[in-house]
Amino acid sequence: MPNKYDYTSVMSLYEDARMERTDWEAEWRQISDFLLPGRGIYQTYTKPRKRKLTTRNVINTVAEDALYVLTSGMHGALTSPSRPWFSLDWEDSRITKIEQLKAWLQDCTKKQHMAFHASNFYSIINSFYTELIGFGTACVYVGEDSESSSSPFRFETLTAGEYAFSVGADGLMATFFRTVFMTERQMVERFPKTVSKKVKDRVKRGETGIDRSDLAVVEFVVRSPYKDKPITRMYFETASTLRQTKPNPEQKPLEVSGYYEFPYMVARWSTIGSDIYGVGPGSRALPDIKRLQEMEKAFLMATHKSINPPLNAPARMRGKLNTLPGGYNYYANQNETVSEIYRVNFDYNGVSNAVERVEQRIQRNFFNDIFLTASRDPNASPLKATQVNVQEQEKMLRMGPVVERLQHEFFYPLVDRCFNIMLRKEKFEPLSPELADMAGDFSISLISPLATAQRSVALGGIQAFMGFVGQTAQFDPSVLDNVDSDKAVREYADITGVDIGVLRPSDGVAKIRDDRAKAQAAKAKQEQAMQAAQVQGSVGMQDSAARKTSAEAGQINMETTQLAQELGM
User: Smallest Cα–Cα separation from 399: which of 362, 370, 361?
Assistant: First the structure.
């Protein structure tokens, strides 16, 4: 264990990380109140007793609906369980030409997709998108401590305020802190040898009432070597867990272990300058969300006043006034009448239009126009359907920066860690020593619809270029000499996310073309032989005819000579 990380230094670093997080917490609390009730833990060492999934601040739920439309859209367009959303390939093109290595990596890709299906990945990823969109920052734990026999890894989504982190000069995660809540019995079961005597004694005496059911344990992860692993993880009991007024500097860690890869994947929607935490659509839409709730309150109040206005009534009618439909009020003095204090002249249409405009702005902030298109008409013509598809791809380009950031901050590290976990647990077919020495690094590509849409500009360029070349070749076929058709086809397949098993390897294509050339050469040679035979046969027939004609002519001449002799000529 690195000596520089003890209880005092870890808690000091944690306090610094929490102070850095303070600037965002005030905004996160408002997002929890107006957009995501029930999410967020803002009491560091105290777990909320009951999560409130509703709040009086939310009257109009358009913002929540818009957020869940974007959440579902990103889930289906980036990590759909119904189709592969990433592929693996060797970075070195020379390795790709080795059929055994290419087939092995393809098999690994398929097995990794199956492992994702067998795990809880698709059940937590939607919650990850919700945190990312709402708070601008989201975190997922990727552990190899899965107890399932069918899945080698386990996932867990954290909520805002539950964790804090810092980054190094290289922009990578440097330290990560998390407050883990456990019951006293769980602590004894998890750390039987290192948990404090106070906690053990309380469990033995049965003092595990509701007031002590959730104790805070600080988890600390840092990029520092532990044995043969580059990442260190440590657990510490807190002063509140030990019922101490002051922390004990001599306190030993509950557990020290290591990781080969950083287990926490943190993603940010977008950042401002060198900020650590991100800003998402929830932050940008927050002013409109507050405005919408105020407008909705005013609208409801005006509606109530119009339907049930405040009244002036005689004092003697106190408790006797009947304002129900068809109700009777009896009085003797005609001058004692019930009247409205003031008349509400409320412009319902104007306010409704104003509310609708605010709702539309909120929906645009959550990119609802990308995933919900009114033009999707099942009876539309193919031309119209094509136009709508092009328009939707253009809209998806607006999410390009978000997708690029997610690729590098979240998906690439996640897939890489899961691949290495499966490799360490021997979930892949073993490679022979010779092939293992030849294998190098592999690259990860996202092939989901949303990721593919970000490369649609390049796709359109290839289509336009090949169309132009095809038209020009009708007048001058020599222009085809300028085009590398093989390169264009493979580039097109890469952009559209065609399965890596569809395209033949380059050496396979070369063999097919070589066999085709040999077959054509053999056929041409056979045709030439047949033509030569036909020519020789024609010449022979002509010679025979000539000889026959010559022989017949000689016979005639002999007969003529003989006849002349007989006549004495």
Answer: 370
